[in-house]
Amino acid sequence: MNQTGFVKTHFDLCTGCSLCQLACSQRLAGGYNPHRAVLAIRHESENLYHFPVVCEQCQNAYCMNSCPVGAISVNEATGAKVVNLETCVGCGTCAKFCPIGVIHVDPEIKKSRKCDLCDGQPLCVAACPTGALEFICPPPEANAGGDCHA
Amino acid sequence: MHDGYMGRFLMVDLGRQTAEPVPVPDWLKDEFVGGKGFGAKLLYDLTPAGVDPLGPENVLMFLTGPLTATMAPSMRACVVTKSPLTGTFLDSYFGGYFGPEIKYAGYDGLIIRGRSEFPVYLWIEDDRVQFRPAGSLWGKDALDANQAVKAELCEPEAKVVTIGPAGENRVRFALISCEFNRQAGRGGAGAVMGSKNLKAIAVKGSRLVRVNDPAAFNEAVAVANKDIAACGDCAALTATGTSFAVPWANEVGLIPHRNYQDQVDDQADKVGDAGQTKHLFLGKAACFACPIRCSQMGAVRTGKHATFITDIVEYESAAMIGTNLCIYDIRAVAHLVKLCDQLGIDSMSAGGVVGFAFEAAEKGLIQPPAGIKFEFGSVEGAEYLIRAIAHKTGPLGKTLAEGVARAAKAIGHGAEDFAVHVKGLESPAWGPRGIPGMGLAYMTADRGGCHQRGFMVAYEVGGRLFEDQPVDTYGLDKKALMLYGLQNYLAGTDALVKCDFGGFGVTAESYARLLSAATGKKYEAPFFDALGERIWNQTRLFNNREGFDPSHDRLPRRFVEEPLPGGPHAGRRISEEDMNFLRADYYRVRGWDERGRPTAETLGRLGLDKSRQFGAR
């Protein structure tokens, strides 16, 4: 039973517009660049298909397991696996072992960046014009004070 | 402070293989803003008078605007150069993902000069610029070349523009294929790229595009998105893209049929939204940061040409390759349009040129090779000609690759009577007989016969009011004044660089709000009219310098001498007298002299008399 909140993707609705990535990079880095976001879009077959690639907030998170300094922990409210920027040393081990490539060392701050579900109000979901991204709340019994059921 | 710009152009000299960033001066931002504005000023300043469009001295520019690459809805970028098809200023717009990537690499534009001695492509990764040999890419079609560049670089995330064989062969209406399914189509920018031995440009950037006031910008984006959500035309584009315009253009009597011999076609619906929904569409794709997602992606699944992936057949292509050539199997039309995209020729001009060739064959002026028919309705004939043009096969391929104006002159024997173009640009798919204001728009558009510089159709048959009054479709009065307003506003917002479809919804107030929040300066809605007028006059100065005068501001003979045989505007034409009235009225409204030149007073009013020269030469 998945006890975490996560962003569910619907590739059939994704148009590849990248607005989700822009909202993400603006929040994380203070400017627009989809390469600086912590979600990606794969455009395939001459643009016929678009696959949003979003952090699954794994229950068995390799990024968290592999971090040598314990900088990644679980946010109790949302279940998100969150990087503590004070602890992170920017070694990139997490990025090496994330199987879907949604955690990376930011070139500017030299620390790991990954999806933290925007504390329960994901901006990527809000920015998506088609509903291709959907925020799934953690089940109420797992939700210790998060406001996504409000 | 951040202002939405990156503050630098990348100046590339292909002959010397040098690339250096140069600052974007503040005065250029203030007076010309970006996109078309930058292009108008830079083309004038960076080229000598009479520059050969296919010579090393011509500049090929990929230009963004201050809102490109942000969350502002439906922004694009443009290619600006001197057109090898028309000899005029050329601005050709493209959506997709390449424009924003230029900014992410740290530039407001790429300015490319010179000619490489051998085929190359450019690989731009932030400050690192490589000139890479393109020998193995030469000859590849535009879409294959895109994939090949990414594969060679091991960079699936790079954004790439390419030319096809037609650009390599300098076909005068060759396009630049932009990532992805988007083309800088009109006017032959692909031939300019080919003349420079430049097969492709790949860009990937890590820089941030920052706006001045992020909170205010977010609010402005929300307002602009609301404009789009409230816009019926935008909703129609979301539903079926531009294909819905096919039945409409037919109903209002404007769709080209048989090389413009008529403006109605009783089979038009087959190549419109009805036919395309049934035979092509599967899902939707969007250009970068666009909520409208007008692109309907799909595939031809059945029939002779199956199976291949196709984007929507846009209105212009559906009409120019479909009704204009009397080809009504939308799967065949999609096949021919895709062929144009792969070979790298503008499908609008291709439809014009093939229609011209079919009529020339009908009149016995040209002959097809054995086994091929050049006649309206012949898919095989059209395909043969498209391939022959792109590869410049034989005397006929070479002749037609020059565009209808030059081809008609070469063929002679009255062929110029049915060569449908303005200043050499094959006419778009809105026949002007019955809508004289649209005729004037073609006569005066800065890049030759173009429908996107002032869409008078909206006033003349679309029900749009002017000064709160319905517009007299066939009347000539005030048409120049209406067009003046449209051209100015569109040129002003093409500096941003907006998409015309986003512009159906987003208001001038909303664009001003976006620009204010991005730059930190205060802009009001009328700014775009004034900016656009300055830009329009700057492009006119270029065209005047290159030898254009009132004799070029005219329509082709078919629209002037041949009354429409049928449809709602039966009997209509735009006579010499009509043209003379419209042209003179237009020059008067614009503040141009009788030779079509901006007067000293006009230049002074627009600040063009004391405008500095961009000093990068």
Structure description:
- The complex is a heterodimer of chains A (150) and B (617).
- By secondary structure, chain A is α+β, with helices and mostly antiparallel strands.
- Helices cover 17% and strands 19% of the residues of chain A.
- Chain A has a single domain, classed as Alpha-Beta Plaits (2-Layer Sandwich).
- Chain A has a two-stranded antiparallel ribbon.
- In chain A, strand 4 and strand 5 (81-83) form a beta hairpin.
- Chain B folds into three domains: 8-204, Aldehyde ferredoxin oxidoreductase, N-terminal domain (Aldehyde Ferredoxin Oxidoreductase,  A, domain 1), CATH 3.60.9; 249-420, Orthogonal Bundle (Aldehyde Ferredoxin Oxidoreductase Protein, subunit A, domain 2), CATH 1.10.569; 436-605, Aldehyde Ferredoxin Oxidoreductase Protein, subunit A, domain 3 (Orthogonal Bundle).
- Chain B is 40% helix and 13% strand.
- Chain B has a six-stranded mixed β-sheet.
- Chain B is globular and about 65 Å long.
- Chains A and B meet through helix 1 of A and strand 13 and strand 14 of B.
The CATH topology of the largest domain in chain B is what? Aldehyde Ferredoxin Oxidoreductase,  A, domain 1
The percentage of residues in β strands of chain B lies in 5-15%
CATH class of chain A: Alpha Beta
User: Uncertain runs of chain B with pLDDT below 50, 5 residues or more?
Assistant: none
User: Which architecture of the largest domain in chain B would the CATH scheme give at its second level?
Assistant: 4-Layer Sandwich
Mean pLDDT of chain B: 97
Number of helices of chain A: 4
Oligomerization category of the chains in this entry:
heterodimer
The top-level CATH class of the largest domain in chain B is Alpha Beta
Predict the CATH topology of chain A. Alpha-Beta Plaits
Low-pLDDT runs of 5+ residues of chain A are none
Distance between the termini of chain A: 22 Å
Query: How many distinct folded domains of chain B?
Result: 3
Number of domain modules of chain A: 1
**CATH architecture name of chain A:** 2-Layer Sandwich
- DSSP helical segment count of chain B: 25
